[in-house]
Amino acid sequence: MKAPINMKQSAGILLYRFKDQRTEIFLVHPGGPFFKNKDAGAWTIPKGEPEGEEPLMQTALREFREETSYLPEGFPIELHPITQKGGKRVTCWAIEGDLDPDHLISNTFDLEWPPKSGRIQAFPEIDKGAWFSLEEAAKKINQMQISFIEELRNM
């Protein structure tokens, strides 16, 4: 199902693995000063906006690689899209895979910080990633994305 033409879109990957007979979810914590002291509800799936007419699955893989330096290679399972509070539609695929969060390398973004200072600083798009049990992930993830975890749990 396509989003309306004027609706902003984003695409991402919900990476999961099986460890010690339980399912774990990989989430990332946004970098930069706005999320520095936020934890519960601030974590997210690696995601981003398409470039031009880029297919959303390609966007999801590109964004995952840009934010983590890892390219998932498993079989993608498309999950039901969600609409975030700001109106952006997020399409997500669950893919089984594994990566070491201690070896993440994230792209950066520029931001005037402090505000109105005229000083531009570079911040990592994500400052950390981690594996969580389904229960822990449900507490950490942006609440608008929790349905991705619930859908994976019910597969």
Can you walk me through this structure?
The protein is of the alpha+beta class and 155 residues long. The protein has a single domain, classed as Alpha-Beta Complex (Nucleoside Triphosphate Pyrophosphohydrolase). It is built from 3 helices and 9 strands; from the N terminus they run E-E-E-H-E-E-E-E-E-E-H-H. The strands form 2 sheets. Strands 1, 2, 3, 4, 5, 6 and 9 form a 7-stranded mixed sheet that branches. Strand 5 and strand 6 form a beta hairpin. The mean pLDDT is 94.
Domain count, please report it: 1
CATH topology: Nucleoside Triphosphate Pyrophosphohydrolase
What top-tier CATH class fits best?
Alpha Beta
Total beta-strand segments: 9
CATH superfamily: Nucleoside Triphosphate Pyrophosphohydrolase
Q: How confident overall, as mean pLDDT? A: 94
Helix content: 10-25%
Specify the number of helices: 3
User: Any idea what the CATH architecture is?
Assistant: Alpha-Beta Complex
| Rg calc | 15 Å
The chain-level structural class is alpha+beta
Q: In terms of per-residue confidence, which ranges show pLDDT below 50 for 5 or more consecutive residues? A: none
Strand content: 25-35%
Largest sheet: 7 strands, mixed
The multimeric state of the shown protein is single chain
Give the key terms.
single chain; 155 residues; alpha+beta; Nucleoside Triphosphate Pyrophosphohydrolase; two-stranded antiparallel ribbon; 18% helix; globular
Q: What's the helix and strand layout?
A:
Elements: E1 9-19, E2 22-30, E3 47-48, H1 56-68, E4 77-78, E5 82-83, E6 89-96, E7 108-112, E8 120-124, E9 126-133, H2 134-140, H3 146-153
Parallel strand pairs: 1-6
Antiparallel strand pairs: 1-2, 1-3, 2-9, 4-6, 5-6, 7-8
